[in-house]
Amino acid sequence: MCLVLVIGPLGTIIHETGHLLGALLGKADKAYLRIGIGQRVSKFEMKKVTIEFNRLFFIGGLTSSEKENSSFTKKEGAFIILCGPLANLIVATIIQSISIENLYLSLFMMFNYWLAFINIIPFKTRNRQSDGYQFIKLVFCWKNGDIFNEK
Fold first, then answer.
1. What pTM did the predictor assign?
2. Given 17, 37, 69, 93, which residue has the most CB atoms within 10 angstroms?
3. Neighbouring-strand partners of residue 33
4. HSE-up of 33 (CA within 13 Å, CB side)?
5. 66 near 30, Cβ under 8 Å?
6. Interatomic CA distance for residues 23 and 83, integer angstroms
């Protein structure tokens, strides 16, 4: 229960906040972070940032961002994509360096390592794409399509 209701959602919040911070560092005009799916429970708006929590908070998250008068460069886009897994990696490494013997902290550390690792693997399921998939798609995109033959 702890993994599903606490550790998983916290790891997802860290991951999506990493993308959010990357977007803000990339000078995004607007950034949107959503945790979970289903009916909205709460929504916060602060200048450029909108954060939404949904009823099924333990099922994934999403961050999107935009620039009003231009697009992100490939370098900025790649940075934003990598900031999610990097945030999980940093948190896990900090927890590991503390070296406190605690089952829940160890589980939180391992989950963050897992989240960082699984998200850099390029894969696509239905309409969801991993960060690794998005990174490769962005970096290796050609004019007439990309390495995944998408239009």
1. 0.88
2. 17
3. 51, 63
4. 22
5. yes
6. 9
